[in-house]
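Fold this: CocE/NonD family hydrolase
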Amino acid sequence: MRTRDGVRLDADLYRPDGVGPWPVLLLRLACGRRTAMTSHYAHPRWYAARGYVVVVQDVRGRGTSEGRFRPFEAEREDGADAVAWAASLPGSNGTVGMYGSGYAGMAQLLALAERPAALRAVVPALAGWDVFTDWATEGGAFRLADAMGWALHCAAESARRLEDGAAYRALLEAIRSLPLDDEIPSRPRVLRDYARHCHYDDWLTTPGPGGSWDELSPRHALSGGIGEVSVLQIGGWYDPRLTGTLEAHDALSAGCDGTVRLLVGPWDRHGVAVHAGLDSPKPSDVPSFDALQLGWFERFLKGEMNGAERGGPIRLFDVLERRWRDLPALPPAAWPLHLSSDGLAARRGGALRDDAPDEAFLDVLVHDPRDPVPTVGGHAVPDAGPRDRATADARPDVAVYDTAPLTAPLTLSGLAALEIWVEADAPSFDVSAVLSAVLSDGRVLPLSQGHARVEPGGEQRPMPVALRALCATLPAGSALRLSLAGSCFPAYPINPGTGAEPGETRLVDAQPITLLIHGGGARPSRLLLPARG
């Protein structure tokens, strides 16, 4: 097809056997259409056999499509043009649905902003909502491993298209082993040498939020609503972009005349369902993306009364009890648990308790940049998932605060937050917070996580750290744990303590940072959890 500005976009078409006409499913990819995103979904032939014309298209500047690829810049107009073209194909009945994960999910949301008449249903998965806060940064810190890994893939594809063999070989090697020990860890030589092949430098250096970031983001593009389109969003507890997915649900529900539903399951960013529960998983526990979206398309493209829209507007998977919970909305962070300590939370642990301590306490953490606290589990790339972080919590540069063992099961389903009184002996510092379940067998499984970078002059008292939503039922005998540290590497760059930008910070520049965590008395640090269920 040709876009409105004359660029040729290439696609593969899969058609059902039979007379038709048929609804069309459109998948627009930045990773190359010949893979058909079979890492996340069934092959398009599976959908064609079930009565759909399937179009798998290379976005601008990817695969064999013409143009230059700049992430998200052209997906609004190109996506709307692709929907209109797909609706006009021979065998089409004039209605279109879109699907896809990650970038392909964002491409769906951006196409919605043009309100293409033929688009009736979308199923964006693991997509997010705002490019700056969901893809490039979190809590003011650059998403180092996640952003670097994707940039290397983008650069390798650009080098392949240009037949730049030396660049392609070097970039593939970097993909297989991220160059995080480079002289400038956040801007390694391979990305400096081949900066022309991708967007990484722009993302690393462009200030935000707002400005040019808004021009790329569904959050800004869809501020006027989406009309009569039925939206099924799929989020993952171990996907880095979950917070944006939840924000998108609120915004789309308020600005949509169709049906809007959100499912959050135990998926990581690759769409893999990972097991963290107490019992052995059953195949029926977690439906596939294919089963979920086929039911949605059968309901809203073919009109079958299959009940795909039934249940609560929000359905959450309980990662420990392994069951689904339907909710009308996410419960707020309303139940406070106060941090309490004798000053040795990094040695023998502190406590989480319902009442605030009358007497003030002080816990001291020393962040050593030569041996940063590693990324372990949760949503943070590269080690996302329900990883046991007991070893990490035993480090002397991690402060832990536990509840007493539970006397009855405790269900936490909704939003979470942290308000912490913290200061440091450096103008800039990081706070990494992880909320975990301490199980009776000794495992420490992350349930929620947050990261915040304090820039020079940016301290707030108390300092808010945004934690992710969660859904888990802790069994009797287990406990909740809050872990605090000054780093989470390589998910986020090591803070050098100087206030320098990550792309300008050398390994040798980073200095030890002492964090002072206050609680009790006039400075009560506290964790806020969804009301107990």
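The longest helix spans residues 144-161. The CA atoms of residues 317 and 452 lie 27 Å apart.
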